[in-house]
Amino acid sequence: MSDGHGPSPETPPGWAAEQPPPYGPSQASPWTAPGSAPGAPPGAGPEAPFQQGPHAPYPPHPQQPPGAPGYAPGYGYGIPQAPRPGIIPLRPLRLGDILDGAIKLVRSNPKAVLGLSAVAALLASLPVAVGQAFVLGSMRSTLRDPYADPYAASDPTGVYGTFAAQYGGALVSMAVSFVVVTVLTGVLTRILGRAVFGGSITAGEAWRLTRGRLPALFGMVGLLVAVLLVPLVAFAAILVALYATGSVSGGPLAAILLVMVLLYLPYLVFFRTKFGLAAPAVVLEGMGPVAALRRSWQLVSGDFWRVFGIMLLTSLIVGVVASILQVPFTFVGTFLGLLGDGAGAAIGATVLITIGGTVGAMISYPIEAGVSGLLYADRRMRSEAFDLVLQSAAVEQQRQGWVHASADDLWRPTHTPAP
């Protein structure tokens, strides 16, 4: 339960479901480590491990063959596995943990995650579908009469109308996507922050907890877009100047364009990766736009290629899955738009293309947001020993038998143990 008044329906077997209720009123913080007396000095009791030296929660141990007594996959013989109250084990994550956790994010709260993703995908797909249906209608008349003049006054869907529909729909879709995907990322990140502890949260509560962070989230995304677009604007200005003055044309101009593209790709990869964890910092840590970008830069430093590889692999996976889901609807819609007749064909093509785009995007949006949030958690666990905080909270969750709403506060930097 998201409000913390009852057992969580997502609690794994052997955790809270088998624990007795709290033995009295909650203390000031429901995440006080068990055995710590209220008011005890820092470092006393079970919180003492947070004051130890460099993070080394898993000491080296000789590896034993799988199947041996006490064997923990990936960690060896006699080393206990980390607790897993929610969608991930509370330890530094491997690639499989991140991808599995992103899928479990969808499965643990399907109504909120898929429902919100479907709304966002529908709003982003509809302008493109309308534009494509308009273009297909124009192509249908061309197929029927290949010698027709596209500039004829009798043709209301001539070249200019087709161009405006095709690219205008794409531009409108990009603008809508900027808004809805930004909002969706914030809401899904809030759901993920609770799902790590095995807690469930409704779409309404996730929105209520996220809406105060939307100005900072939009500011962060706007800054990121500006950083990524500055070289493109400069390159475009150079090309226009060269073409206008007649300095270069034809082949040399194309060669310059190719060089600019090759120079831009490393720039895009570098900054997109370095700032890829800024959204979770805005939502979960309550940071402003500039501070969140700086925070992401800090977390990615030292593990750039791993973060980039996981992001790239995720994009490839969700791209393939989305295409597989989208292609049948797009194919039938295109077929109907080209060979059909009248307004019914245009409406049918628009509906089918919209459904295809919505189905594909509603799967890709939460997976990409989940991977980004879990990469953020992984980098904090690796660089700040944040898994100690999560494990201590999980122990208290097991004792009390429910996930308190104040679990969201654990993501703030004040809860990071001192190195």
Automatic annotation (TrEMBL):
<dbReference type="Pfam" id="PF25231">
    <property type="entry name" value="DUF7847"/>
</dbReference>
<feature type="transmembrane region" description="Helical">
    <location>
        <begin position="304"/>
        <end position="325"/>
    </location>
</feature>
<keyword id="KW-0812">Transmembrane</keyword>
<feature type="transmembrane region" description="Helical">
    <location>
        <begin position="214"/>
        <end position="244"/>
    </location>
</feature>
<keyword id="KW-0472">Membrane</keyword>
<feature type="transmembrane region" description="Helical">
    <location>
        <begin position="170"/>
        <end position="193"/>
    </location>
</feature>
<feature type="domain" description="DUF7847">
    <location>
        <begin position="94"/>
        <end position="347"/>
    </location>
</feature>
<feature type="compositionally biased region" description="Pro residues">
    <location>
        <begin position="56"/>
        <end position="68"/>
    </location>
</feature>
<dbReference type="InterPro" id="IPR057169">
    <property type="entry name" value="DUF7847"/>
</dbReference>
<feature type="region of interest" description="Disordered">
    <location>
        <begin position="1"/>
        <end position="75"/>
    </location>
</feature>
<keyword id="KW-1133">Transmembrane helix</keyword>
<protein>
    <recommendedName>
        <fullName>DUF7847 domain-containing protein</fullName>
    </recommendedName>
</protein>
<feature type="compositionally biased region" description="Low complexity">
    <location>
        <begin position="45"/>
        <end position="55"/>
    </location>
</feature>
<feature type="transmembrane region" description="Helical">
    <location>
        <begin position="113"/>
        <end position="135"/>
    </location>
</feature>
<feature type="transmembrane region" description="Helical">
    <location>
        <begin position="345"/>
        <end position="376"/>
    </location>
</feature>
<feature type="transmembrane region" description="Helical">
    <location>
        <begin position="250"/>
        <end position="270"/>
    </location>
</feature>
